[in-house]
């Protein structure tokens, strides 16, 4: 739901900040007060196009920010994760349009593209009026409404998973065919490279140990002389350190018998003697192991030279050589067994095609079962909403592919039903489009071509009323859905919107008291003059103000007692009072 919106320096709006409620939010105001400007500003954070002309005169930029509650919106969460954006319980969308023509979009304070903002807008809001966010005018969305009506999400997910696996297999097949000539041409190169690496047989970590051994062998004479000399100093010489420490320890022991303060010094001296003995032992053993072998020295130098050549050719380390060897081996194996690989891939495609085809057929069958039910339900709802002679028809088409094109590979056919091949997409083989006629005797035509703005809004209201429990879009905005509606029909539209608001947040701009009286929250758009400039403001009304505003919608600017009484009746306040008296 939309929790709040902030608009600054947009058209004649100086600054507006408003918090919306769950349920039915109504916006009213006199003609020309700026209701449409408010909706246009909302459209900015939903990814609609904008130019610097929308900036209030004298301002540097226009800024619109909306805060949405998205804790339970899985589609929004998935999109944010895919885009690497912060996932929070609140989603902050911000749009800035500068006088210099710069257009910046932000999601949770992170810069994003306009396309990303529009994608999020499509997941958050259905905006009905003369705006881009009329999903009913996009035939690609019609299949989603049909699936929502039929509760077909499980079948759609099953089909889509198989479709994606099949698509991946086809891409692998195309990749192999594109690489076939190159692989076969480079087969001899792969074989030579494998023999070259295998002749050396590099091992992980080998280079470090060889270089250590090389340093030792190259300095064998120095190591021998130094360890022998150190052993003499520490242990075997006339004035050996070990002997001197023993003498010192003995003298400290004599002193400790006299004064116990020397005990610690005696112990430390004994420890030093033991440590010197250990060092001397190590030096003696090391000295005894030293061998100068020119043959081994030459062998190591040669080995390191061969490894160095491989590193220059296949990477800067033993690990990179081994990784290259793995890749070359895979390419060589593919070149050697190319026909077998193609055969195995073709078998996998056939098997997955059967799975995908079966899922597509089940999904298509269920959709056709739903068509008459949704047609009847929409027509009945449209009748209640004032379109008495409506014909509504959900039409489903499939594109069949020629067998010759499939065999020759000029078409990528994903599914096969019986002996026929059909083009398929992520949601199946069906192309779904809504057709509508609102005049008696007229043939239904595509909804996007025949419906007026008010009719589209009422068709959407009818569909949403039928699909009320669907969570596909959490917020619906209706911009003057009541155009051309009055009396009993207005009351029916209002009741339908009120019922719909139990499942979706609804924001509706209206001039009808029958709808305004049902609001959970009521806002009024007004113009005011400040310092010789006109600006639009948006106020949330308290209860008494709401009664007066509904009364104005009923009787005009001059509010009468009869108007106030009628307003209270529309708002159900009389019923609430009479219940309280009983």
Set down the secondary structure blueprint.
Elements: E1 2-10, E2 13-19, E3 24-29, H1 35-44, E4 61-69, H2 74-83, E5 90-98, E6 103-107, E7 110-112, H3 114-124, E8 125-128, H4 142-150, H5 153-185, H6 187-200, H7 206-218, H8 220-236, H9 241-258, H10 263-289, H11 294-314, H12 318-336, H13 338-384, E9 391-397, E10 400-401, H14 403-408, E11 415-417, E12 420-422, E13 431-437, E14 445-446, H15 447-450, H16 453-466, E15 475-479, H17 487-500, E16 505-509, H18 513-516, E17 521-530, E18 533-540, H19 543-555, H20 561-570, H21 573-581
Parallel strand pairs: 3-16, 3-17, 8-15, 15-16
Antiparallel strand pairs: 1-2, 1-4, 4-5, 5-6, 6-7, 9-13, 10-12, 11-12, 13-14, 17-18
Helix pairs in contact: 4-13, 5-13, 6-12, 7-11, 8-10, 9-10, 11-12, 13-16, 16-17, 19-20
Description:
The chain has 21 helices and 18 strands. Helix 16 crosses helix 17. It has a six-stranded antiparallel β-sheet, with helices on one face. The protein has a six-stranded mixed β-sheet with strand order 8-15-16-3-17-18. The longest helix has 47 residues. It folds into four domains: 191 residues, P-loop containing nucleotide triphosphate hydrolases (Rossmann fold, 3-Layer(aba) Sandwich); 147 residues, RecF/RecN/SMC, N-terminal domain (Glutathione S-transferase Yfyf (Class Pi), Chain A, domain 2), CATH 1.20.1050; 134 residues; 40 residues, no CATH class. The protein is elongated, with a radius of gyration of 41 Å. The chain has 582 residues and is of the alpha+beta class. The protein starts with a strand and ends with a helix.
């Amino acid at each position: 739901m939309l929790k709040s919106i902030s608009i600054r320096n947009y058209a004649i709006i100086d600054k507006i900040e408003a918090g919306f409620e769950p349920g039915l939010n109504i916006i009213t105001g006199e003609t020309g007060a700026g209701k449409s400007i408010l909706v246009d500003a909302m459209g900015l954070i939903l990814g609609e196009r904008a130019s610097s002309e929308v900036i209030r005169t004298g301002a540097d930029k226009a800024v619109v920010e909306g805060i949405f509650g998205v804790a339970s919106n899985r589609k929004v969460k998935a999109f944010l994760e895919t885009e690497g954006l912060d996932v929070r319980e609140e989603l902050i969308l911000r749009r800035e349009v500068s006088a210099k023509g710069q257009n910046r979009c932000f999601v949770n304070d992170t810069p994003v593209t306009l396309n990303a903002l529009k994608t999020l807008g499509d997941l958050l809001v259905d905006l009905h009026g003369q705006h881009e966010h009329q999903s009913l005018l996009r035939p690609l969305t019609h299949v989603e409404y049909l699936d929502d009506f039929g509760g077909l999400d499980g079948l759609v997910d099953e089909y889509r998973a198989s479709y994606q696996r099949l698509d991946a297999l086809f891409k692998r097949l195309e990749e192999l065919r594109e690489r076939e000539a190159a692989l076969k041409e480079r087969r001899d190169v792969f074989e030579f490279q494998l023999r070259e690496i295998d002749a050396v047989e590099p091992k992980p970590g080998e280079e470090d140990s060889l270089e250590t051994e090389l340093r030792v062998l190259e300095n064998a004479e120095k190591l021998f002389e130094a360890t022998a000399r150190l052993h003499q100093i520490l242990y075997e010489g006339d004035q050996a350190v070990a002997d001197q420490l023993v003498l010192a320890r003995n003298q400290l022991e004599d002193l400790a018998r006299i004064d116990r303060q020397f005990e610690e010094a005696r112990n430390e001296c004994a420890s030093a003697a033991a440590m010197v003995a250990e060092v001397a032992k190590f030096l003696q053993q090391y000295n005894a192991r030293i061998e100068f072998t020119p043959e081994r020295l030459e062998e190591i130098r040669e080995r390191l030279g061969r490894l160095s050549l491989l590193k220059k050719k296949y990477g800067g380390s033993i690990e990179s050589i081994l990784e290259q060897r793995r890749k070359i081996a895979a390419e060589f194996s593919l070149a050697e067994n190319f026909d077998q690989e193609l055969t195995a891939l073709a078998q996998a495609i056939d098997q997955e095609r059967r799975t995908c085809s079966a899922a597509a057929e089940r999904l298509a069958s269920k959709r056709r079962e739903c068509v008459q039910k949704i047609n009847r339900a929409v027509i009945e709802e449209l009748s209640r909403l004032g379109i008495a002679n409506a014909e509504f028809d959900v039409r489903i088409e499939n594109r069949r592919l020629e067998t010759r094109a499939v065999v020759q590979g000029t078409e990528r056919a994903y599914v096969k039903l019986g002996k026929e091949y059909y083009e398929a997409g992520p949601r199946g083989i069906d192309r779904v489009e809504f057709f509508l006629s609102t005049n008696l005797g007229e043939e239904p035509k595509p909804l996007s071509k025949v419906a007026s703005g008010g009719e589209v809004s009422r068709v959407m209201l009818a569909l949403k009323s039928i699909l009320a429990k669907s969570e596909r879009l959490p917020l619906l905005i209706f911009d003057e859905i009541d155009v051309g509606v009055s009396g009993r029909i207005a009351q029916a539209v209002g009741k339908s919107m009120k019922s719909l608001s139990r499942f979706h947040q609804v924001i509706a701009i209206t001039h009808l008291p029958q709808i305004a009286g049902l609001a959970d929250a009521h806002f009024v758009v007004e113009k005011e003059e400040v310092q010789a400039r006109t600006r639009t403001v948006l106020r949330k009304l308290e209860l008494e103000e709401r009664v007066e505003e509904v009364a104005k919608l009923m009787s005009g600017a001059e509010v009468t007692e009869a108007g106030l009484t009628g307003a209270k009746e529309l708002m159900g306040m009389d019923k609430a009072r009479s219940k309280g008296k009983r």
